[in-house]
Amino acid sequence: MRTWIQAFLLSALVHSIFFLGPILIGFVQTSFYKPDHLSNFQTVEYIQNEVAFGMIITPLGYLSIIASFLVVSLVFGALLILYKRWKKN
Questions:
Q1: Calpha distance 89→43 (Å, rounded)
Q2: Could you list the residue range(s) of the whole structural domain that residue 74 is in?
């Protein structure tokens, strides 16, 4: 039972890094951004042509996240069991 709890925790850690990593990278890039005011006014383009806002969530989006969490947990569980057997011998 303890092995599967460790597997779920490792899976949660991997998924949190996967989802929070881009958010943290975007935050750091935004906080260190220094705009060049002179070159901004040389060409006029609409921002909608360059940047997409928002995201699309399909009905199976949440199901795929849950399935991914379970599959990664199973893989980590199997690896932990193999590691414990190898460590015993």
A1: 69
A2: 1-33+59-89
Give the HSE-up count for residue 80: Cα atoms under 13 Å, Cβ half-sphere: 17
Whether this model's pTM surpasses 0.85: no
- Let me know if residue 14 belongs to a domain: yes
Residue 41 located in a structural domain: no
Phi-psi region of 64 (alpha: psi -120 to 50; beta: other; left: phi over 0): alpha
Q: Is 77 inside a domain boundary?
A: yes
Distance CA 83, CA 4 (A): 13
pLDDT tens digits along 46-63: 655 666 666 677 778 788
The answer to whether position 3 is within a domain reads yes
Enter the DSSP assignment of 47: G
State both tokens at 84.
């414990």
